Amino acid sequence: MSTVTNDIVAKLWNLCNVLRDDGVTYHEYVTELTYLLFLKMAKETGTEDRLPEGYRWDDLESKAAPERLEAYKVMLIHLGTHGSILTKEIFAAARSFIDKPATLTALITAIDAIDWYSAKTEGLGDLYEGLLEKNANEKKSGAGQYFTPRVLIDSIVSLMQPKLGEVIQDPAAGTGGFLIAANH
């Protein structure tokens, strides 16, 4: 990962401290951040038209702090049943683990302050993978058993030297790290 990506991942990981202070567990905070990041990325990448009107990042951000948390919880449920097929898949059975309105406000403010232009040029998938790697490295999360380090992925792909048109099997695809590395 580049320095820009590492810096953004570090900023996002620091948001996990905000979530932990609200009682959100290691198993829940990557999911919680993912929902918010999908909303923000839809805005940043110009794909908000895939989200129903009234259920977008700016709609959430414009709510007054006291009512924002309840609006966010309603938004998650609505997005799981409305919008594009992809939107419904991403938000299927979504729910928020946040209890305090101030926590959601802090997350939205911090996510808004990140330089997303730099993130887009680096690749948004790297950010998500970086978050998962940080989570896997946390002994308390127990997620390490589900994460293949990038160095190992690159080594295996280098040894296998896959060619265009060949079948690649990754039965535990997760973030699709092997497929992405094979494509490069």
TrEMBL record:
UniProt domain N6 adenine-specific DNA methyltransferase N-terminal: residue ranges: 9-50
Keywords associated with the record: Methyltransferase, Restriction system, S-adenosyl-L-methionine, Transferase
GO molecular-function terms, A-Z: DNA binding; N-methyltransferase activity; site-specific DNA-methyltransferase (adenine-specific) activity
Highest taxon in the source lineage: Bacteria
Catalytic activity, reaction form: a 2'-deoxyadenosine in DNA + S-adenosyl-L-methionine = an N(6)-methyl-2'-deoxyadenosine in DNA + S-adenosyl-L-homocysteine + H(+)
Domain (DNA methylase adenine-specific): residue spans on this chain: 122-183
Xref: InterPro entries: D12N6_MeTrfase_N, DNA_Adenine_Mtase, DNA_methylase_A-5, SAM-dependent_MTases_sf, T1MK-like_N_sf
Its EC number(s): 2.1.1.72
Keyword S-adenosyl-L-methionine: yes
Listed transmembrane segments: none
SUPFAM superfamilies: S-adenosyl-L-methionine-dependent methyltransferases (SSF53335)
GO BP: any one term: DNA restriction-modification system
Entry protein name: site-specific DNA-methyltransferase (adenine-specific)
Organism of origin: Burkholderia cenocepacia
Lineage, opening ranks: Bacteria, Pseudomonadati, Pseudomonadota, Betaproteobacteria, Burkholderiales
Gene from which this protein is expressed: hsdM
